[in-house]
Design goal:
The protein is mainly alpha-helical. It has one domain (3-197). It has seven helices and four strands; from the N terminus they run αβαααβαββαα. It has helices spanning 3-15, 33-39, 46-49, 58-81, 92-101, 156-168, 189-197, and strands spanning 20-24, 86-90, 117-118, 138-139. The chain has a two-stranded parallel sheet with strand order 1-2. A two-stranded antiparallel ribbon has the order 3-4. α1 crosses α4. The protein starts with a helix and ends with a helix. It holds the Pfam family Lipase_GDSL.
Length: 200
């Protein structure tokens, strides 16, 4: 996503009357079962390619973090251009990595990088020729115990935890490291969302 595309999209939403715009950050790509299976054994110094705590691919996560820094920089510029609008950055990256590093804490199996539905077996249960829904693919018995549904999409349970982490956190509306002057509370409507999806 280029900054000019982002500028255009957000400017159009503001022109339509939005006063609060939530912009989601990128998830940790290196924790996606599809990408992990695709690049598995892809060469390089294998030991340095995976985070020892999460098992996620560091190069892809570094790319996602770079994207999120650029996104926050672009949002800071947009805030200056639209001072009457609250542009809020939703931190998805940390919400996902928290679940992947400590799945049991959130009620998931101790295999957060494996897809519930797939036909690949192995540590990621993902194979492009046996994608979820294709012949040879099977679904796990209890999807709510898995983080990934099909290697690309999160399960409903994981999405709920991610949404709760975002809604229970204090959203950034100031770009760089938050201070009390740059961190705002979610709009009151967010409380309805927290209640509806069962956030504690």
């Amino acid at each position: 996503m280029s900054c000019s595309f982002l500028d255009l999209q957000i400017t159009e939403v503001i022109a339509a009357g939005a006063t609060t715009v939530v912009v989601p950050g990128m998830i940790p790509l290196g924790c996606e079962p599809q990408l992990l299976a695709l690049y598995q054994g892809g060469g390089g110094d294998d030991a340095g390619d995976y985070d020892p705590k999460s098992g996620c691919m560091t190069r892809l996560n570094d790319l996602a973090e770079h994207h999120n820094r650029a996104l926050n920089h672009a949002l800071a510029e947009l805030r200056r251009a639209h001072p009457g609008v609250s542009l809020v950055y939703a931190e998805l990256y940390r919400a996902v990595t928290d679940i992947v590093v400590s799945p049991g804490r959130y009620g998931f199996r101790d295999m957060p990088l494996a897809a519930c539905c797939g036909g690949g077996g192995g540590p990621y249960n993902f194979n492009m020729t046996a994608f979820c829904g294709a012949a040879g693919a099977t679904a796990c018995a209890v999807p709510s115990e898995y983080v990934s549904w099909d290697g690309v999409h999160f399960t409903e349970a994981a999405n709920r935890h991610i949404a709760c982490a975002v809604l229970n956190g204090r959203p950034y509306d100031g770009g760089a490291p938050p201070t009390m002057s740059t961190v705002t509370a979610w709009p009151a409507a967010a409380e309805v969302g927290r209640s509806r999806i069962g956030c504690s």
